[in-house]
Design goal:
Chain lengths: ~675, ~325, ~220
């Protein structure tokens, strides 16, 4: 317990991350050793970090100042503070980093000698460290610095495989969007400073309503870009898949959560009880994000882009949950807000686990087959059995199937919506109904998305020689993915444990402990947080899992008893009595979601092209069929915007930046005069 | 003790009654078409016969195809057991929740859809893709309808909902619940692959949904999948019976005879609902696949109007 | 009686959505007929209560008029017209059916929010009845906008009238007898004239698409 009071664990963890970076650079002569050593150090840092955060959450002193260095630069304080909220996010970071680093040991090994692997390892470790600092910054300027370091490092990691043009393009889009985001964050932070006179992170009381609105909107846009909230999401499906799989896992798993952390830290802690419309705005944004994300994920055939879009969907769920919590808080219902926040934070953790596992598994498939395109895969369940099992597990969690963790948090979100509806007397209730409908649709489409990923990618016959010759992933990759899936299952089976960990962060935010929802080891019962007199539904994962497992075993036994031994006769797939069917006759990835694309064509605006080669119209030698769809956001929002900015710059270049030296000197003169006049007036 | 007894009763009722509605629906259809039709209990015999056979499995398949029938059966049975056949002996700690109910069914569907893709046949993929699509489209209607029912009971827990509905007496007189009932009937038709969404009697692979997914299954695998489908239908019919027709004519009879009479009443309700489904099936034609979204939209509207009808009076 | 009229009003609204969702002229007329039956039932129900309470039979007469005109006569005229024109299935909608139905749903939400702002109506049941009947009228109007062929527009007009009639019924137990009957006579003549016009439009433009009338602008 004494250990928890000092915060020593966090120090050790951070220094281990730093040493991982240093080790990688020191050993740069011997890339393989550098890779192993650096990731071993990261893993050690992660273990210590996880232990320290867990200890802090269960028995820590609440707020703990780790460092507070004031330099000669005014308004810059290197202040590292751990409180319950930070510790919760650090826990998620540490758990994910442990698994991803373990994975990286073997995943990155093939790069040794071909690329500057030690540099990559160092950037990776620093990226992890920067995220840790984002979660622990106690001073707004320091937060911004850590935030920028995180963004720039992740940019380098995204463009690591820079020989592919699309990766560079993805990186550029990412860099531009992130710069815009930082500008908005800066606006928010400066507005806060102008009103409170301090950069310290904490409650900022006494802001005028106008200033509150400006601050909220700035942070919403600034953090919204990082999280990928629609319509600010355009960079995410390019950048997340472009990075190597381990970095994708970190970016999707935890980096988007820095935005959630930021919203909680700056808006909820900073501004206190939210204004009434904030929650509504978040709710609607969240729903639009969830639906947009999942519908694009469903029609995507590139495995990693599919996962990136699914991340957008999950961000939508998180923002929706945040909106429900904000609405509850502004309506003066802290208990309900606790339920919604607990669901949101729990889902953030869950998403880190299952999305991490999915990216890692898909990365293994990518390395084994050298393709990310689902249309070129198939039959991997026999070539890569362990990877297939863990992908199925992670997909079950991501599709919110009981008894996995995704369902536990989704169920809590539904209960929060239901209770909001019960308590709401005005027409606002309809918003909750719509939210429930949209979340249900998003959840079912997410399940369909992952069915497509598994069904087309893993099952059936291999569609290309590369898929037919795939080899099973190396042991560290299987173990790391397996660990994450195991976390998903355990958290799903005993959500009470997660609520115990969540208790203090949520208590700090709303003043109400969510642990009353947990009924011991058995499960969840939110009635404790409800103001209605009746129990509001219960969910006990252990009973569900036990019951289904028991029925499964009973069915096995009964079938054995009635029908005798399990004999299986092998035969070909049903081919309608024709000769043979081959892999090309299988349902394709595009076909799987084509009907959805047709039904929602107003959203996707697909254009199709059918190109036949050969003499005969009806029996061509080959047919190529391509479907392209444009994102309405890119076409109607960003392209005009980019064109406008380009035109503006051109104009500026031709009128202001003429190349005449005398003109430039005149600018300087006017600037000086202007400054003088301002000084005199003010 | 009481809890164990209750669960045994539930499981037994589900297992015994599940194939009955399908037989009834088929009989209704046959009679409307002026055929004699198969006996009411034909499905029981089919299942028994199939269970005794070993399975023929495609050489392209994996463990998914062999595991799926068991998962589908177990999840459907669990969901069916969650819906009380009689509330007389309800245990105190009842782990039933309406949202959970639908997600347990979804778990079974997840594996069913996966197994459809396992053999690498275009038919299986077609069925799987369509099933994933249809189930996603009716999901909002289902959940909003659930919320409407939950609003009356102020809870989503199954016993809470049941007692609230019993207190209402005749729930269908509430406009809100009447609309939700209609929505749930549409959801039921879509979820259990009945006309107008899917044709369970079709022999043309190209129009199949559910049948296309189980095309590669045979013998005991097929038996479990069919049984699972029957259990799922039983569970959804039981939901309709419990929520919208809670009337118990033998409420005054105590003890074991009372429980048995309540079970008989429950079976009669199931049969009545099967007649309804059979009548719909006999009177309509299968919709074009791309008209199914219209059906889903209508179901959603019904559910949403149901909630609206509840919200308007302002309570 | 109240629970019955609430259920009837919900069914009335539902019939408006069924109307909105139907594609065939045949099903338009069927849906309208069902709606008319519901209106008649509602009127009859209220009429029976007024007879029991005050002894006035006005509403029962109106109910009989509805049955005769809206349930029997007008659908017959429409069926006859529909048999005479060339098309059976309406293809050109403003949007596709699910979108139209969802937009109609948002109309109901707007009506709900608007009516619940009226402070004068406090009673929950009255609110439901008002929202349902007004929404029926509005959905009818939207139906009229969304259909391009002339018969669809006639049915839309009739659906609006149904909604307004029931609104009046709920709000003040019906308009004065003479007004009701006058409106009916108007309706019948409107249907007859429109029925004739459908033929005229078709013979002049070889279509019943009312958009074609914009050619008349010259």
């Amino acid at each position: 317990m004494a250990l928890a009071q000092t915060g020593l664990g966090f120090w050790i963890s951070f220094s281990l991350y730093l040493s991982a970076a240093v080790l990688a650079l020191l050993l740069s002569r011997c890339p393989r050793a550098a890779n192993v050593a650096s990731h071993a150090a990261s893993m050690a840092g992660a273990v210590v970090g996880a232990a320290a955060s867990l200890l802090h959450l269960l028995a820590g002193p609440g707020r703990l100042v780790l460092a507070d260095l004031v330099g000669t630069v005014p308004q810059l304080e290197l202040k590292v503070v751990v409180d319950d909220l930070s510790a919760y996010f650090l826990l998620a970071l540490s758990v994910l980093v442990f698994c991803v680093s373990l994975y990286s040991v073997s995943y990155l090994a093939p790069y040794a000698g071909k690329r500057n692997l030690p540099l990559f390892d160092a950037l990776y470790a620093l990226f992890v460290l920067s995220m840790g600092l984002v979660f622990t910054a106690g001073h707004a300027v320091f937060f911004l610095i850590a935030w920028e370091i995180m963004s720039v490092l992740s940019y380098f990691l995204v463009v690591f495989e820079s020989e592919r043009e699309e990766n560079v393009r993805a990186g550029t889009i990412y860099l531009v969007m992130t710069a815009v985001g930082t500008a908005f964050l800066l606006t928010g932070i400066l507005t806060l400073y102008a009103n409170t006179g301090t950069f310290d992170l904490g409650a900022a009381a006494g802001l005028s309503p106008g200033a509150r609105t400006v601050v909220f909107l700035s942070f919403l846009v600034g953090f919204g870009i990082k999280a990928g909230v629609v319509p600010l999401h355009v960079w995410l499906p390019y950048a997340h898949p472009a990075a190597p799989a381990n970095v994708s896992a970190l970016m999707s798993g935890i980096m988007v959560k820095t935005a959630l952390y930021g919203m909680l830290r700056f808006v909820l802690v900073g501004l206190g009880v939210p204004d009434g419309w904030w929650g509504g705005a978040l709710l609607i944004l969240g729903l639009v994000t969830a639906l947009t994300g999942v519908s694009h994920a469903y029609v995507e055939s590139d495995m990693k882009r599919l996962l990136a879009y699914s991340t957008i969907e999950n961000v939508g769920i998180l923002v929706t949950g945040l909106g429900v919590a904000f609405l509850a808080l502004s309506a003066g219902r802290p208990a309900l807000a606790s339920l919604a926040l607990a669901a949101t934070l729990f889902h953030a953790f869950n998403h880190a686990m299952f999305k991490g596992a999915l990216f890692l598994g898909v990365g293994s498939v990518h390395h084994a087959t050298h393709t990310r395109n689902l249309e070129d895969l198939g039959g991997l369940v026999r070539r890569m059995p362990a990877t297939a099992v863990l992908l199925v597990g992670a997909a079950l969690a991501a599709s919110a199937m009981p008894p996995f963790n995704g369902f536990a948090s989704e169920w809590m979100t539904f209960q929060a919506l239901f209770q909001s509806l019960l308590l709401e007397k005005s027409g606002l209730g309809l918003l909750y109904v719509l939210a429930a409908a949209a979340l249900a649709l998003a959840g079912a489409l997410a399940a369909a998305t992952f069915l497509k990923l598994l069904g087309v990618g893993l099952l059936g016959r291999p569609r290309t020689p590369a898929a037919a010759e795939a080899h099973e992933a190396p042991l560290p990759e299987r173990i790391s993915g397996g660990l994450l899936v195991a976390f998903c299952l355990v958290l799903g089976l005993v959500p009470g444990a997660a609520l115990r960990v969540l208790e203090r962060p949520v208590l700090g935010l709303t003043g109400f402990s969510p642990s009353a929802v947990s009924t011991g080891w058995l499960g969840l019962d939110p009635s404790a947080l409800s103001t209605s007199p009746v129990a509001s539904g219960t969910y006990s994962p252990l009973l569900v899992a036990g019951g289904v497992a028991a029925f499964l075993l009973a069915a096995l036994a009964a079938v054995r008893l009635i029908g005798g031994r399990f004999l299986v006769r092998r035969y070909g797939t049903w081919d309608c009595g024709f000769e043979t069917i081959d892999a090309r006759m299988q349902y394709s990835a595009m076909g799987f979601s084509k009907s959805f694309q047709i039904i929602f064509r107003f959203l996707f605006r697909p254009t199709r092209e059918r190109r036949a080669e050969g003499e005969h119209l009806y029996h061509p030698d080959s047919i190529a069929y391509t479907v392209k769809s444009v994102s309405p956001f890119e076409k109607f929002l960003y392209e005009p915007l980019v064109a406008f900015v380009n035109a503006l710059s051109q104009k500026a270049k031709s009128t202001i930046q003429t190349g005449s030296l005398r003109r430039y000197l005149a600018y300087i003169l006017f600037a000086l005069l202007g400054g003088l006049v301002y000084f005199l007036v003010a | 003790m009481k809890t164990i007894l209750y669960w045994l009763l539930q499981v037994a009722a589900a297992l015994l009654l599940a194939p009955l509605p399908i037989g009834a629906i088929r009989k209704v259809k046959a009679l409307v078409q002026k055929r004699k039709g198969a006996p009411l209990l034909q499905l029981y015999r089919d299942l028994l016969k199939l269970l005794r056979k070993s399975a023929v499995v495609s050489d392209a398949t994996s463990w998914v195809l062999r595991a799926a029938p068991f998962v589908v059966f177990a999840t459907s049975l669990f969901a069916a057991a969650m819906m009380p056949a009689t509330v007389r002996v309800l245990p105190d700690a009842f782990p039933g929740d309406l949202i959970l109910f639908f997600f347990v069914l979804a778990l079974g569907r997840f594996f069913l859809v996966l197994s459809g893709m396992d053999a690498g046949s275009s038919f299986g993929g077609m069925g799987s893709a369509r099933e994933a699509m249809i189930s996603a489209l009716v999901e909002p209607a289902m959940l909003v309808g659930l919320f409407a029912v939950g609003l009356f009971a102020k809870t989503t827990s199954i016993p809470g909902v049941l007692s609230a509905m019993t207190a209402l007496g005749f729930p269908l007189l509430q406009p809100s619940l009447l609309l939700v009932f209609l929505a749930f009937v549409l959801v039921l038709l879509a979820e259990t692959s009945r006309i107008p969404v899917d044709d369970p009697a079709t022999h043309l692979e190209l129009t199949m949904v559910h049948e296309a997914m189980v095309l590669e299954d045979s013998g005991r695998h097929l038996a479990l999948l069919e049984y699972g489908a029957a259990l799922k239908q039983y569970a959804l019919l039981a939901l309709l019976a419990d929520v919208f027709l809670p009337y118990d004519p033998f409420a005054a009879v105590p003890g074991v005879p009372g429980v048995l009479l309540a079970l008989v009443a429950f079976a009669v309700k199931l049969l009545f609902l099967s007649l309804l489904v059979g009548a719909v099936e006999a009177a309509t034609v299968k919709l074009r696949f791309f008209s199914v979204p219209n059906l889903a939209a209508i179901a959603f509207i019904l559910s949403f109007l149901g909630v609206l009808q509840f919200l308007i009076p302002g309570r | 009686m109240e629970p019955f009229s609430v259920v009837l009003s919900a069914l009335l609204l539902l019939s408006a959505f069924v109307l909105m969702a139907s594609k065939r002229i045949h099903s338009y007329i069927g849906a309208f007929r069902v709606q008319a039956v519901l209106v008649a039932l509602n009127t009859g129900l209220l009429g029976l209560t007024t007879v029991a309470a005050t002894g006035r039979v006005d509403l029962l007469v109106v109910c009989a008029a509805i049955l005769a005109l809206k349930v029997w006569y007008i659908p017959r005229v429409l069926h006859r017209t529909y048999r005479a024109v060339e098309y059976r299935v309406e293809k050109d909608f403003l949007f596709n059916i699910p979108t139209l139905v969802l937009l109609s749903l948002s109309l109901v939400v707007v009506v709900f929010v608007a009516v619940s702002r009226i402070g004068a109506v406090q009673d929950g049941t009255t609110l439901v009845l008002l929202v349902d009947s007004l929404s029926t009228a509005l959905v009818g109007l939207f139906f009229l906008i969304s259909r391009k062929k002339a018969i669809g527009q006639i049915v839309g007009l009739l659906a609006i009238e149904n909604g307004l009639f029931v609104t009046a019924l709920y709000a003040s137990n019906g308009m004065p007898f003479i007004v009701d009957i006058g409106v009916f006579i108007d309706l019948v003549s409107a249907v007859l004239i429109l029925g004739v016009l459908v033929f005229r439009i078709e013979s002049a433009f070889e279509t019943t698409d009312t958009d074609a009338m914009s050619d008349l602008k010259g």
